[in-house]
Amino acid sequence: MMVEASAADSDLKTLVLRMFLPWYVWQRPREIIRDYFSYVGAMMEVFSFAFLLKTLLSPWKAIQDSAPQKGFNLERWMESMALNMTTRMIGMIIRLLTILTGIVVQVALLIGFATYLAFWFAFPVLLVLVPVLFFR
Fold first, then answer.
1. Which residue from 41, 48, 49, 58 lies 20 to 30 Å from 104 (Cα-Cα)?
2. pLDDT for 75-109, tens place per residue?
3. What domain range is 41 assigned to?
4. 122 within 8 A of 88, measured Cβ to Cβ
């Protein structure tokens, strides 16, 4: 009976040392980091920072007014300039807010995944310390 118990203990130790520890220390953290970069890539596509920066000063929704081609009418030219400047300012404000939102989302992802990874490594220690500290 004792031989079987020690064989089972040996199998459990082998299982823990050869399979669980490498998974816990290397495989799963690597998957967590890979998932983080997948989310970062997805958010980069959602917010499209390069496109937003390229079109930062473009008119909002491509709303533009052109000045009259024949003759010079100062009032009409000023109306056109005011509308064009207004739509460009609206576009810039909305694009800047979108960029800012994207940065906030990226920082939140970084904090969230860093916290998750920290708890992943701290969990075994917490699993031992919490009962010892609270149930003295």
1. 58
2. 888 888 999 999 999 999 999 999 999 999 999 99
3. 2-134
4. no
Cα–Cα distance, 11 to 29 (Å, whole number): 25
Query: How does DSSP classify residue 6?
Result: H
Phi-psi region of 3 (alpha: psi -120 to 50; beta: other; left: phi over 0): alpha
Q: Round to whole Å and give the CA distance between 61 and 78.
A: 21
Q: Give the total number of structural domains in the chain.
A: 1
Q: Tokens for 1?
A: 């009976």
Contacts of 40 (CB under 8 A, 6+ apart): 106, 109
